[in-house]
Specification:
This protein is of the alpha/beta class. The protein contains six helices and twelve strands. It has one domain: Class I glutamine amidotransferase (GATase) domain (Rossmann fold, 3-Layer(aba) Sandwich), CATH 3.40.50.880. The strands form three sheets. A seven-stranded mixed sheet has the order 6-3-1-7-8-12-11, with helices on both faces. A three-stranded mixed sheet has the order 2-4-5. Strand 11 and strand 12 (162-167) form a beta hairpin. Helix 1 (22-34) crosses helix 6. The protein is globular, with a radius of gyration of 15 Å. Residues 11-180 form the DJ-1/PfpI domain.
Length: 191
């Protein structure tokens, strides 16, 4: 929901408390804020989030802005799901994360996921009939869930009234961040 003062979109970025791919969390937050969005980071526990580089090397810790249980799709214009193998695996078994992304989709608000983030979309039942991309190892999971996997930097798909924006890996972050900003500021075209 835009804040009403100047059309500033409110964007929620959700992660687990560990295993998050550093750049897939920090770069979208930075790019969205640079464009004027109010980007809020939520995690299951309001404790520090441990980021990693390439899933194996511990990097910086980040304090989330809010607890995941305090997040509501009613308060935001879009949700972003960063990758990291452990991050995505932990999120997809959290009922509150699954229900939250379903609520965004049901409200017709963009749901964006990068790298391993689409695992949460599979768990939430949001990929059937959709075109999307991900880290290549999720291809079979997406196909088995009824999605159409493609190897592109960014895939923007809208089926059954909900929009998915997906990307493959950290190399696609600039394009992914631009697509999320475009969808929330109303300037993106379908790919």
């Amino acid at each position: 929901m835009n804040d009403g003062t100047n059309g500033t979109p409110n964007i929620l970025v959700i992660t687990s408390n560990t295993g998050v791919e550093r750049d897939e969390l920090l770069l979208p937050l930075q790019r969205l804020r640079e464009r004027g969005a109010r980007a809020v980071h939520a995690a299951p526990d309001k404790a520090r989030v441990q980021t990693f580089v390439h899933d194996t090397d511990k990097d910086v810790t980040v304090d989330p802005d809010i607890d995941l249980s305090a997040a509501s799709a009613d308060d935001y214009d879009a949700v972003v799901i960063p990758g990291g193998t452990v991050n995505a695996d932990k999120l997809r078994v959290r009922p509150e994360a699954v229900e939250l992304v379903r609520a965004f989709a049901a409200a017709g608000k963009p749901v964006a996921a990068i790298c391993h983030g689409p695992w949460l979309l599979v768990e939430a039942g949001l990929v059937d009939g959709q075109a999307l991309t991900s880290y290549f190892s999720l291809r079979t999971d997406i196909l088995n869930a009824g999605g159409r996997w493609t190897d592109q930097k960014v895939v923007h798909s809208c089926v059954d009234g909900h929009t998915l924006i997906t990307s493959r890996n950290p190399g696609d972050l600039e394009a992914f961040s631009a697509a999320v900003a475009g969808a929330t500021f109303g300037t993106v075209s379908m790919l």
